[in-house]
Structures are given as C-alpha cells and as structure tokens.
Amino acid sequence: MQKQKILVVGAGFAGAVIARELADNGNYEIDIIDSRNHIAGNCYDPYDTGKKLRIHQYGPHIFHTNDQSIVDYLSRFTKWIPYQHKVEALVDGIGYVPLPINITTINRLYNKNFTQEQQMREFLDKVKTKHKKVDNARTASENIFGQELVELFFARYTKKMWDLDLEQLPASIVARLPIRYDNSTGYFNDKFQAMPQQGYIQLFENLLNHPDIHISLNTHFDKAMETQYNHVFNSMAIDEFYDYEFGKLPYRSIKYQHENQEKIGQKVPTVNFTDISAITRFTDWRLYPGCGTDKSDILLTYEQPCSYEDNNNERYYPVKTVDNVPQKIYKQYETLSLKNKKMTFIGRCGQYRYLDMHQVIANSRMLSKQYFCS
Ligand SMILES: Cc1cc2nc3c(=O)[nH]c(=O)nc-3n(C[C@H](O)[C@H](O)[C@H](O)COP(=O)(O)OP(=O)(O)OC[C@H]3O[C@@H](n4cnc5c(N)ncnc54)[C@H](O)[C@@H]3O)c2cc1C
Fold first, then answer.
1. Is the pTM of this model over 0.90?
2. What is the pLDDT of residues 306-358, one digit of tens each?
3. CATH class of 4-39+208-247+322-373
4. Is the CB–ligand 1 distance for residue 270 below 6 Å?
5. How far does the centroid of ligand 1 lie from the alpha carbon of residue 238, in Å?
6. Whole-angstrom distance, CA of residue 344 vs CA of residue 11
7. Where are the domains of the chain?
8. Burial class (CB in 10 A: 0-12, 13-18, 19+), 245
9. Residue 176 reports pLDDT greater than 80
10. Residue 370: which residues within 8 A CB-CB, separation 6 or more?
C-alpha cells in the first residue's frame, strides 16, 4: 500500500510530535519544514562550549506536568534531571524575596515573624479586597493578595509584560498565579518537574529520528506546497496563513540581552523585577541543571517584552483581553480553517492559545489519533 504524504509545518513540539506519531503508525511519509535554521522550535538550547553553558535561545523552558502519560512518552527520547524551579523578585529597598509569595515574602515586606500558615491566612484576610464584581485580573488578584501586593508584584510586571493594565486582562490569568502559605519556594505545583538531561535539541533529534520523517530547514511554508500532500499539519500563525483577512492577531514577544558578570548575589536562576523599568526578569543559566555548573561563566539574560512586529515577527504569547477582541478575530480564522479538510492548525500560533510544552504534546497526540480515525 502506498503511504500517504503528509506535510508538517514547524519543527517545534507541536509539529515534531505529530510527525513522530504518524511515522510510528507506519502508513505515512512525512516532510517537516521549518523556516528557522534549526529544529526544536522555541525550545532550542544550543550548548556554548566556550562559556560551558547551555542557553535556551528563546527563553528558559522548564518541563512540568501532572500527566504521567506525557512523561512516559517523552522518556522514550530523553533522560531527565529532576529540577524544582525557583524564582525570586527583586524589591527596591528590601532585596530578593521568594516568588510565589510565601511566609518569608510577607515577613520581609511587612517586618513580621510569621511561622504558621494560619498567621499568613489571617494577614491576607485583612489586606485583601472584597470586590463583589470580579470581572478582570485586577479585581480577581486584589481579592487574593490585596492592593499593595498586587501593585508591587503583578500590576507593574503585567504592564511591562503585556503593555496592558490588569483591568484589561481576563480574571482567568490569575488562576496561573501560585501562592504558598508556608516557606516552600517551588514555583510550579506539578508532580513531575525536570530538565532533559542532554538538553531539548537532543530530545528533538531523537523524536524526529525515524526513516519516514524528512526534515527541511530554512524552508518557509508556501501555499503551493499544499497540493503535493494528502494533509498538512500547520503550526504557522493562522492569521498569517489567511493573509490577515480578519485583521492581525496580537502577540507579545521578548528581546533578550546577554551580559557577563563576575559575581552575582542571588541563589535562584530566575529573578523578576518589580520596578517600572522595561525589563521583566533575568535568567542565570549557570543555575539551571543541565545548562551549567559552578565551572560555567556567569551569563545573565535580561528579558524586555515588546510587540512581535518589533522583534522580527517572533510571536511568543497570544494576547487575550477582557473585551474579547483578539479572541473574536481568532474565532473567525478558526471557522474558516475548519472548512479546509486537508489542513489542521496546530500549536501555539496555529491555535492561538498559550500552551505549555506538555499541553502542546498532549494536543498533538490527540490530533494525530483523530487523524488516524478520520
Ligand atoms: C519565553 C517562553 C518561555 C516558555 N517557557 C516554558 C516553560 O518553562 N515550560 C513550558 O512547558 N512551556 C514554556 N513555553 C511554551 C513553549 O515554548 C511552547 O509550549 C512550545 O514551544 C510550543 O510549541 P509549538 O510547536 O506550538 O511552537 P514553536 O516551538 O514556536 O514551534 C513552531 C515552529 O514553526 C516554525 N514556523 C512558523 N511559521 C512557519 C512557516 N510559515 N514556515 C515554516 N516554519 C514555520 C517556527 O520557526 C517554529 O520553529 C515558553 C514559551 C515562551 C515563548
């Protein structure tokens, strides 16, 4: 039987997992293209032998999930280094404090000596607001943390990150904000948290290593390609594919600035800035397991959010607002795309959703199963 010809656009997790699932099925011949000169999408993490550092070129990626089936799936392609991510915030006049907010954060900011969860809960009960109408990220977060903590940790950061005020963002984003009522400092709640032992590039090399998968880099999708394949799985930006017919979908992007340092005081790999400067955070690569060691150079990467048009069309974060304008534009593209039975949009930019790696992988596995049954 002749194998079906499949085109996958994008060699990030969305495309690479679909390609592998189809290849393992045995009935497909897959061409995977990427406009960049490398595989691994935004997880690309080349090792710099001079600096003795692995640097995630598109920002730090920490793998975390509660879904054991995704861990089992990826463990075919990589070994892991267990790692609990830690973040601190730099507060003017106080120094580094733990983030998510925990008992130490409150003690340092308010000069308290709390030791018990109950004391922290009582304190927050006093400072938090009691907005009855919770219809945006400002009211939702103030009802958890109170106005002062929200201003310090979230309002300025949000303005820099999204160029939007908390009032313009949906309340649902607050669900992503963790809080600790003890002294624990882990950033994520998920059961499995780790870094790939030899980095993401090697994970992707193994994932794509199959005789029925053919990779072409430096290759931009062209509509003429569609006719040569039985089906296309496409992780390009859906609005770009439709020539912006219903308008441009907004995305935030990030510019990275690298700086060598002789010495640095903080003990965690990520520091968030709470001030009004344009920088949101820095990464100290030495402190990520699998990225550096105490023999590595100290290289800090500072992040400055911007619109994607100001950063070479690098689309990182889909923007969702409380007025639903971007969401409505996306719906129009999605409706149009569902009429084309020969193409499936995948991944963050194809589906215009912020997805962590484990969610993209689960989604791509589900879509390939659906395709087998279609
Ligand atoms: C700064 C940042 C930090 C993150 N940190 C984490 C984290 O810690 N943990 C976590 O779980 N997730 C994290 N994520 C999310 C993670 O990056 C995504 O879940 C994942 O990369 C999505 O995979 P994707 O394949 O959809 O997109 P991508 O990885 O972006 O891959 C898409 C690929 O398609 C290619 N492409 C696009 N258009 C075309 C075209 N027209 N022709 C050819 N090729 C094209 C692109 O070049 C790209 O390589 C982070 C994301 C960002 C932006």
1. yes
2. 999 999 999 999 999 999 999 999 999 999 999 999 999 999 999 999 999 99
3. alpha beta
4. no
5. 14
6. 15
7. 4-39+208-247+322-373, 87-176
8. exposed
9. no
10. none
